[in-house]
Amino acid sequence: MKKVQQHYDEVADVYDDRYDGRRGKCYHKHICDHVMSVLPRDGFLLDLGCGTGLFVQRYVEEGGRAVGLDISPGMVRHGRHRCPESGFCVGTADVLPFKDETFNALASLLAFSYVPDPEGMLRECYRVLKPGGRIAICTLSRTVFTSIVPLFYQVGEKVGLKKVGVGDFDEHYYTNAEIAGLFRDAGFEDVSVGRCSFAHLNLADPVFNLARKVEPFVEEKLPYLAYNVCAAGKKPKE
Length: 238
Ligand SMILES: C[S@@+](CC[C@H](N)C(=O)[O-])C[C@H]1O[C@@H](n2cnc3c(N)ncnc32)[C@H](O)[C@@H]1O
What we know:
CATH topology: Rossmann fold
Shape: globular
Helix content: 40-55%
Bound molecules: S-adenosylmethionine
Strand content: 15-25%
Distance between the termini: 35 Å
CATH architecture: 3-Layer(aba) Sandwich
CATH class: Alpha Beta
Radius of gyration: 17 Å
Number of helices: 9
Order of helices and strands: HHHEHEHEEHEHHEHE
Low-confidence stretches: none
Number of domains: 1
Strand order of the largest sheet: 3-2-1-4-5-7-6
Largest sheet: 7 strands, mixed
């Protein structure tokens, strides 16, 4: 975990160049839309692995209140700057410094793959959610495309490539069945799992533009080709 934290501290100042630039914005907004579509609006959100606060900002703009937590102090510093009205804290997603039943919305975007104890994280999510509260996690899925990503990242690390997310972090990419099982084992109900984002921001411009055009078709008819898995669930009402 220390390695992941150090990496994100190192790239914190350039992180938004990747996800808040022209193409990155498009890719990230698409993921945010998926997550937003299954969460209550105008609720109280906890965003785990919140990074520079991109989703916290979105949630607040849609009328809610939000708190972000991230393992990297550098990323949290940017989050505070972006959303001064929201709360941010440094910490790990599997040990949460919040009281039971505090939030009615819980999100995590592009961070779950790093968490070494996913069962522990979901247990904590369940604990801090109010009964009836909703959770949505969007993370890189295991696909034909992503199966070579760890190798690329290992090589990237060896040659000293300093890019956001590039490093050998022992990430875990989830299948639909795997993440659905984790949600159910943690006690969530109404569990649904879908795929999103066929147009990955790493693609060259013409391919990205083409991929965007066919993205709705792929997500509906060929979901196993999309890059991210989006899992959602609800804490049962007592
Ligand atoms: C790819 S970034 C995603 C950031 C943000 N969610 C977004 O969508 O822009 C991954 C983030 O997860 C954070 N992270 C990784 N492991 C974590 C952990 N165990 N607990 C909390 N945050 C973690 C990193 O510091 C980094 O900010």
